[in-house]
Design goal:
With 503 residues, the protein is α/β, with parallel strands linked by helices. 42% of the residues lie in helices and 13% in strands. It is built from 20 helices and 16 strands. It has an eight-stranded mixed sheet with strand order 3-2-1-4-5-6-7-8, with helices on both faces. The protein has a six-stranded mixed sheet with strand order 12-11-13-14-15-16, sandwiched between helices. It has a two-stranded antiparallel sheet with strand order 9-10. Helix 15 links the parallel strand 15 and strand 16. The longest helix is centred in the N-terminal third of the chain and has 18 residues. The two termini are 28 Å apart. The relative contact order is 0.08.
Length: 503
C-alpha cells in the first residue's frame, strides 16, 4: 500500500473536485487551491457532500466520513501548498497559463516534490519546458467523473524521471484506479485509441452507407458497445469532440488514420452540439433522445426461393433461417429469387460480379456479428425493391432486428472493428503503451467490451487484416493501410497481444 502523503490540487472545478475526492477517500491529506476566491472552500463542501451521500448509501462508514472530511483543506494561497509532496494541476487548458503556474510552483515546493498536470490535450513536455527541473514533471490524466472512471493515464514526458512515473502509478493504484503508462503523444493513450470508432463511423455516414442511428444500432446491439459513435458525440458535445479530432489529426502530422470528417464543421457552425444544445445527430426532448422509427418489416413472399453462397462462413446459419421461414433453398443462383452472399471486406456489388450473380437479385449479410443479435443487410447498387424486401422479411422472420445499408466494402461492424484494431496495433508498434496498459485503458476508459488487440484476436486477426487490405484496394485511401504489428503477427500466426521480442 502506498504511504500517505500530502497532495495539492490546483483547480476546484469538476476535475479538481473529483481528484480531491479520490485521494482524500484513499487516506491522503489533500489541499485544494483555486485562483477564484472561495472556490476551493465550495469544492471542499461539495466533496464532503459526496462523502455524506456515500454514508447514506452504505458505501462509507460514518467514522470514515469524519476521517475523510478532516483530510480536506481549502487553501486561499498557493503558498499553502509548499510542503505538498505531489501537486496536481487541473486548471484551464491554456499552455501559457499552465507554464506560468508550474514556474511559480517550482519556487514554492520542495526539490523532491512531483508536479503533475491533468491536461487532456497539451503535450506534457511543453508544460515541463518552463521548469528548471522538468524531470519531476509528468502528466496524470483522470477522466470524468474521477471517482467512477477507474483508470488514469500517467504520461511520461521525454525528460520525466522513471522514478516519478513509478511513484505516480503507486499513488494512483493505491487510490483504487488502474494506472496506465503512456508516452507523451497526441491524445495520450485513451483518446488516441478511441479515434477509430468516431472517424470510421463518420466516414460510413459520409459515404451514405448508413444513417447515424443505423451505425449506432449495429455497433451497440451487434458488437456490444455501450454507445455508438454518434450517441457518444452527442453526449460529449460535437463542439468539443471536433476540436479534439482536429487537434489529434494535426498533431500527428495529418495522419490519414485520424482524418476528421467534413460532416462535422457545418454541424458545429449550426450549433448542433448534441444533448446540451437539444439537437446533434439526434433531437432531444426533455433530455430524451428521439430516435427515428424502425423500418417496417415487409411481408415474406410466398414460394420464395433463396440461394446462399456455399463458401461463406455463416452459410449454415443462413440456410437454417431460410428453412425456418418456410422459403425454399435453391442449389443454383440462376434459379433463385434471391441470392445471399457474406463477404469479408468486399461490397455486395463486387462480390456479385466475381461470383457471376445477378446483382439485381443479390444482397449481402454481414458475417461478423452473431446472427441472433442484429443483422446487417447490404444491397448492391442495383438490388431490386422486390429482392430487398424479400431479404428484409426473411432475415426478420424470427424477430431479430435488421439494419439495411447501402453498398460498402466491409459493412459497418467490419469497417469499424478493423479500424479500431489497426489503430491499437499501431499504438503497440510505436511503443506508446504496453499491450497490457493498452488493453486495460480501452476497456476501462472507453468502456469497450474488450481490449482492442484481444478483441481482434477473438474476431480473427487474419480477418481484420483481410478487411483492411480490401478497403485499401477498393478506396486507395491510406487510412486503411495495415499496421506492421498486425501484418507480422498474422503472418507468424501469433496473437495480436504478443509483445515485441526486444521489450
Amino acid at each position: 500500500m502506498a504511504e500517505k502523503i500530502t497532495i495539492g490540487v490546483i483547480g476546484a472545478g469538476t476535475m479538481g473536485r473529483g481528484i480531491v475526492q479520490l485521494f482524500a477517500q484513499a487516506g491522503h491529506p489533500v489541499r485544494c487551491h483555486d485562483a477564484q476566491p472561495g472556490a476551493a472552500a465550495k469544492a471542499m463542501d461539495y466533496v464532503d457532500g459526496m462523502f455524506a451521500r456515500a454514508v447514506e448509501k452504505g458505501r462509507m462508514a460514518a467514522a470514515g466520513h469524519a476521517a475523510a472530511r478532516a483530510r480536506l483543506n481549502a487553501c486561499e494561497s498557493l503558498a499553502d501548498l509548499a510542503d505538498c509532496e505531489l501537486v496536481i494541476e487541473a486548471i484551464v487548458e491554456d499552455l501559457d497559463v499552465k507554464r506560468a503556474l508550474f514556474r511559480e510552483l517550482e519556487g514554492l515546493v520542495g526539490e523532491d516534490a512531483i508536479l503533475a498536470s491533468n491536461t487532456s490535450s497539451l503535450t506534457v513536455a511543453e508544460i515541463a519546458a518552463a521548469c528548471q527541473r522538468p524531470q519531476r514533471v509528468a502528466g496524470l490524466h483522470f477522466f470524468n467523473p474521477v471517482p467512477l472512471m477507474k483508470v488514469a493515464e500517467v504520461i511520461a514526458a521525454v525528460r520525466t524521471e522513471p522514478a516519478v512515473v513509478r511513484r505516480l502509478c503507486e499513488l494512483t493504484e493505491g487510490a483504487g484506479h488502474r494506472a496506465v503508462v503512456t508516452a507523451d503523444q497526441p491524445g495520450f493513450l485513451i483518446n488516441h485509441a478511441g479515434r477509430g470508432l468516431y472517424t470510421e463511423g463518420l466516414r460510413i455516414v459520409e459515404e451514405q452507407v448508413a444513417t447515424p442511428a443505423d451505425v449506432d444500432d449495429v455497433l451497440r446491439e451487434a458488437l456490444g458497445f455501450r454507445m455508438g459513435p454518434f450517441e457518444l458525440l452527442d453526449l460529449t458535445g460535437l463542439d468539443v469532440s471536433s476540436r479534439v479530432m482536429t487537434s489529434i489529426y494535426e498533431q500527428f502530422q495529418q495522419e490519414p488514420r485520424f482524418r476528421p470528417s467534413s460532416l462535422v464543421a457545418p454541424r458545429v457552425a449550426a450549433g448542433l452540439f448534441g444533448r446540451k444544445s437539444g439537437e446533434g445527430w439526434y433531437r432531444y426532448v426533455d433530455g430524451q433522445q428521439q430516435k427515428p422509427p424502425a423500418k417496417p418489416v415487409p411481408p415474406l413472399p410466398e414460394a420464395l426461393t433463396v440461394w446462399v453462397d456455399p463458401q461463406v462462413s455463416g452459410g449454415a446459419g443462413l440456410r437454417e433461417l431460410v428453412s425456418a421461414a418456410g422459403a425454399r433453398l435453391a442449389d443454383d443462383a440462376a434459379n433463385a429469387d434471391l441470392a445471399i452472399v457474406q463477404p469479408w471486406g468486399q461490397d455486395a456489388t463486387s462480390t456479385a460480379l466475381v461470383l457471376g450473380l445477378d446483382a439485381a437479385r443479390c444482397v449481402a449479410v454481414d458475417p461478423l456479428p452473431a446472427l441472433a443479435l442484429r443483422r446487417t443487410l447490404m444491397l448492391t447498387a442495383v438490388t431490386s425493391a422486390a429482392a430487398r424486401d424479400a431479404a428484409h422479411a426473411l432475415l426478420a422472420q424470427d424477430g431479430t432486428p435488421v439494419t439495411l445499408i447501402n453498398d460498402s466494402p466491409g459493412f459497418i461492424a467490419q469497417r469499424v472493428m478493423a479500424t479500431i484494431v489497426n489503430i491499437a496495433a499501431n499504438i503497440a508498434q510505436r511503443g506508446i503503451a504496453s499491450v497490457a496498459d493498452l488493453e486495460d485503458a480501452v476497456r476501462l476508459g472507453l468502456g469497450y467490451p474488450q481490449g482492442p488487440l484481444g478483441w481482434g484476436d477473438r474476431l480473427g486477426a487474419g480477418r481484420m487484416l483481410e478487411i483492411l487490405r480490401a478497403q485499401l484496394a477498393a478506396t486507395g485511401d491510406p487510412r486503411y493501410r495495415p499496421s506492421a504489428w498486425l501484418v507480422r503477427r498474422v503472418a507468424l500466426g501469433l496473437p495480436l497481444t504478443t509483445a515485441e521480442a526486444a521489450r
